[in-house]
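not sure who needs this but someone in the group chat was asking about Elongator complex protein 2 from Mytilus edulis so here u go. i didnt clean anything up, its just raw.
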Amino acid sequence: MTLSIFQPVDFFIRIWRFSRRSVEDNIVKTVKELSLDEEIKMRENTFQFKIGVVYAVSLESVLSGHENWIYSVKWQPPVNSGSGWHQPMHLLSASMDKTMILWKPDKESGVWVEEVRVGEVGGNTLGFYGGMFSPDGLSIMAHGYQGAFHHWAFTKSKGTWEPQVTASGHFDVVCDVEWDKGGGQYLVSLSVDQTTRLHAPWKQSNGQADWYEIARPQVHGYDLQCLALINRYKFASGADEKVIRSFDAPKNFIENFCSICGISLEAELKKEEAQNRPAGASVPALGLSNKAVYSGTPPTEEHLLQNTLWPETQKLYGHGYEIFALACDTECKILASSCKASKLDFAGVIIWDTTTWNQICTLEGHNFDVTQMAFSHNGNYLLTVSRDRTLMLYRKRDENSQNGMYS
């Protein structure tokens, strides 16, 4: 006897029983419904696999629990019990309703029931496109439309399935990366997958440090193109829109960052850039407070989606087309920005004051869009390169100059 599974587009899972028969004939199978005092007739369809071997196929069970398309059903892998290989009656289904369900026959009645359900509440994913067991059946993993992994493991001491840390990263072209300005202790990356991600080393008790994504500060509606870290807990980003956006790290990020990376929280909170931090970016699903601290481990994919956003604190308007490049000086006081430009009128570089967010001046000279910029270490020079095949070096003028800040 063997069991097979089939999932149609009606959100149900059907389990079929294959049984060997000695004669090729249609047999009417009688099954007693457990919840009713009546019998249901179920027909077995037979087919000949090869000469003299006949199998009968009958519907074993219909599993109902998902609320959207089911993209994957997997049996738990066979296990070796010492006397041979044994197939556990354990089934895993993954669905676009953002959940995975473990199914198992009830020990007394034999009816297939939902043993446990794992997944997301809220978030901005499109659901799960597949799931699978680990070889020992004690871990399960799903993957979503955006390529992220979702991992749960069975904790024997608690008897529960707990979410686990997984490898994560961008699923499209990365356009910009930058180290933090407080000693290079984390890296921020930005991609046309419309997310900004922060990566840092998780320092474990054995002294080993492995790099993980510990925050997703920005999830945007446009493809992101460039970023500039203004200080350790503030950055600006540009996308396929005319607006530059500034973000500040919330206080709970500093707590999580110190806990994960083994940094003294007390010392970090005394730094000037760590003062007056907002509590969080937004209220996640079900009104839960955005104050998660991950007990010294990186956050899971579910937490990254919901609890690690940075509040947007400023929008800067001034460019006529989509933002293309950003740069900040070493003193964290000046931000330079450029946009896509097919003619001279829009090719200027705008200089911003990061304290007041006022425009200081516009640097002219290029004929097309400036594709990259960099300040000198002392902040007195700005180097720009453009699609017009030229590079220009601007020098900071004296504070009392009447001809603008740079020339």
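also Residues 373 and 406 are 14 Å apart (CA to CA). if thats useful
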